[in-house]
């Protein structure tokens, strides 16, 4: 399987340098990364709004090693929120944040990440939107869920992400499927050991459906993060069986992938949110997108060969 190999490469400085220098990289990165600056992504947000779509914005960046870098990540989100406020787009765009960017892995990282993310959540609330805490590798999740619980005391609309491939997630879903919660379910995009995560696609898909049923039958707001047509159809059926209206859950897909499906679901009356990443530190995010789907890797390879 190529996926684990690519995920391992996402942590390699040598591979980072090689991929960054490859002639075709810029073209392919542009498929998944909306731009490098706020000004470059504003037209994309406006275009999505014009098509009846919503977005969730992710300022990409990983491997934070100093408190100053964590503060800079916080400020990047505050800049984005300020720009959305100026444009009156706050209700069309939410934020997705990785707590690793806010200093979670540093000494005293739990408290540092909470201190950095709180002003972002506050600013988002002021413009009528919210923040979702992204899930990262399994070693970070207890901290993420604790920060999520703390933030919800003052900002109950704060969301979180759960990953179907982890054994723990079914229990997490039962706990989170409560009134007022917002939970995005994804398959998972980190290299995890067999001791904590399913390794086979069929097992991950089965877990995804079990977890999604728990969320749909609960009292919270499920957010279905998937491009898989079969899982999308199952989600629609589970929503109907649970008696949910179309605005009582939403679909989320990545920018640059299955764009025609974004439009189709929105036209059917579903809430459809496009996960839109931007920024200069794109490597880790980009490699996980390649790992998720072999077609993405083939597309990248053809681009390198064409440009080489």
Provide structural commentary.
The chain has 308 residues and is an alpha/beta fold. Helix content is 53%, strand content 14%. It is built from 13 helices and eight strands. The chain has helices spanning 2-9, 13-21, 25-32, 38-50, 67-87, 109-126, 141-154, 169-176, 201-217, 229-241, 259-267, 283-292, 294-307; strands spanning 54-59, 93-97, 131-133, 159-163, 182-186, 221-225, 250-254, 271-278. An eight-stranded parallel β-barrel has the order 1-2-3-4-5-6-7-8, surrounded by seven helices. Helix 8 links the parallel strand 4 (159-163) and strand 5. The longest helix is centred in the first third of the chain and has 21 residues, at 67-87. It is globular and about 45 Å long. It starts with a helix and ends with a helix. Mean pLDDT is 87; it is low at 302-308.
Helices and strands in order:
Elements: H1 2-9, H2 13-21, H3 25-32, H4 38-50, E1 54-59, H5 67-87, E2 93-97, H6 109-126, E3 131-133, H7 141-154, E4 159-163, H8 169-176, E5 182-186, H9 201-217, E6 221-225, H10 229-241, E7 250-254, H11 259-267, E8 271-278, H12 283-292, H13 294-307
Parallel strand pairs: 1-2, 1-8, 2-3, 3-4, 4-5, 5-6, 6-7, 7-8
Low-confidence stretches: 302-308
The biggest beta sheet is recorded as: 8 strands, parallel, barrel
- Total count of strands: 8
Query: Beta-strand percentage?
Result: 5-15%
What are the secondary-structure elements, in order, as H or E? HHHHEHEHEHEHEHEHEHEHH
> Helix coverage percent of residues?
40-55%
> How large is the radius of gyration?
18 Å
Name the average pLDDT.
87
The class by helix and strand makeup works out as alpha/beta
The strand order across the widest sheet is 1-2-3-4-5-6-7-8
First-residue to last-residue Cα separation: 26 Å
Query: What overall form do the CA principal axes indicate?
Result: globular
Count the DSSP helices: 13
């Amino acid at each position: 399987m190529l996926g684990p190999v690519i995920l391992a490469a996402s942590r390699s400085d040598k591979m980072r340098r090689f991929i960054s220098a490859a002639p075709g990289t810029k073209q392919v990165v542009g498929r998944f990364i909306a731009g490098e600056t706020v000004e470059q992504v504003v037209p994309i947000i406006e275009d999505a709004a014009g098509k009846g779509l919503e977005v969730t914005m992710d300022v990409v960046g990983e491997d934070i090693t100093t408190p100053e870098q964590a503060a800079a990540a916080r400020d990047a989100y505050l800049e984005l929120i300020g720009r959305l406020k100026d444009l009156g787009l706050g209700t069309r765009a939410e934020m997705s944040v990785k707590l690793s960017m806010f200093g979670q892995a540093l000494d005293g990282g739990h408290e540092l990440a909470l201190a950095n993310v709180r002003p972002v959540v506050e600013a988002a609330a002021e413009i009528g939107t919210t923040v979702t805490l992204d899930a990262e590798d399994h070693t970070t999740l207890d901290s993420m869920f604790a920060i999520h619980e703390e933030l919800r005391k003052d900002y109950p609309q704060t969301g979180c992400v759960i990953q179907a491939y982890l054994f723990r997630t079914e229990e997490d879903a039962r706990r989170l499927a409560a009134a007022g919660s917002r939970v995005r379910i994804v398959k998972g995009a980190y290299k995890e050991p067999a001791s904590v995560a399913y390794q086979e696609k069929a097992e991950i898909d089965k877990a995804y459906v079990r977890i999604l049923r728990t969320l749909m039958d609960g009292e919270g707001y499920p957010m279905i993060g998937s491009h898989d047509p079969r899982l999308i159809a199952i989600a629609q059926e589970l929503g109907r069986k649970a008696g949910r209206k179309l605005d009582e859950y939403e679909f989320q897909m990545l920018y640059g992938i299955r764009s025609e499906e974004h439009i189709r679901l929105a036209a059917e009356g579903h809430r459809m949110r496009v996960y839109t990443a931007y920024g200069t530190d794109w490597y880790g995010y980009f490699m996980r997108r390649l790992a998720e789907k072999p077609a993405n890797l083939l597309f990248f390879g053809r681009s390198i060969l064409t440009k080489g």
